[in-house]
Amino acid sequence: MTQSDSKKSGKSRSGGSRSGGKSSQRWLDEHASDPYVKKAAADGYRSRAVYKLVELDEKDRLIRPKSVILELGAAPGGWTQYLSRKAGDGSIIVASDILAMDGLPGVEFILGDFTEQSTADEIAGVMKNRRCDLVLSDMAPNISGVGVSDQARAMALVELALESAVTFLHPEGAFVVKVFQGTGFDEYVKQVRKSFKSVKVRKPAASRARSREVYLVARNLIL
């Protein structure tokens, strides 16, 4: 998530800085007039970022009833709300974030830093050898303002997300991951293509035009 999405900030989530008077005011003005912010409030979603997932789902038919889903970088839970509503009763949804998240019916939430082994082990324990139909990652690092360092941390997170997808996905499952364009992006796309038969690059309308974020939608593991 980026702070411009109002989804959250934290050690494992961010993507933009609002420091400085002019930039802070610009963000506030933009946020107040953002149609996705208003729509999220009207629809009962916790963040405007949900409409990125809605568009991805409409284009790529990602979420099916009674699915097994792993979501990384879930707080405050806008995506999780949509996943729960769309997958419905009988689905298994495991969500994780470094920030706390208000509970949702039928969702197992794991609080912890995904870069730490203890959190990865807890996720594996909850999964209980189940294979996922869908693995999603909307993780991003806090922004320090040092571009090279920020991009390196962002790429480290998507590498870990790919490892989780390969570990937990059903062979015919789908992997959705937010990636920031910059150093290492092309190499990462190639790496994902080595693991999946189909890989598409998406830029949802709800993603701000100035943001470097795009989403990879990958399907069908290459075994």
What would you note in describing this structure?
The chain contains 7 helices and 7 strands, in the order H-H-H-E-H-E-E-H-E-H-E-H-E-E. It has 223 residues and is of the alpha/beta class. It has one domain: Rossmann fold (3-Layer(aba) Sandwich), CATH 3.40.50.150. Helix 3 packs parallel to helix 4 and helix 6 runs parallel beside helix 7. It starts with 20 loop residues before the first helix and ends with a strand.
Strands, helices and their partners?
Layout: H1 21-33, H2 35-43, H3 50-60, E1 68-72, H4 78-87, E2 92-97, E3 107-111, H5 117-127, E4 132-137, H6 147-168, E5 169-180, H7 185-195, E6 196-202, E7 213-221
Parallel strand pairs: 1-2, 1-4, 2-3, 4-5
Antiparallel strand pairs: 5-7, 6-7
Helix pairs in contact: 3-4, 6-7
CATH class: Alpha Beta
**Domain module tally:** 1
Major sheet description: 7 strands, mixed
CATH topology: Rossmann fold
Enumerate how many helices there are, as a single number: 7
Summed over residues and divided by their number, the pLDDT gives a mean of 88
Structural classification: alpha/beta
Give the total of beta strands. Answer: 7
The span between the termini is 31 Å
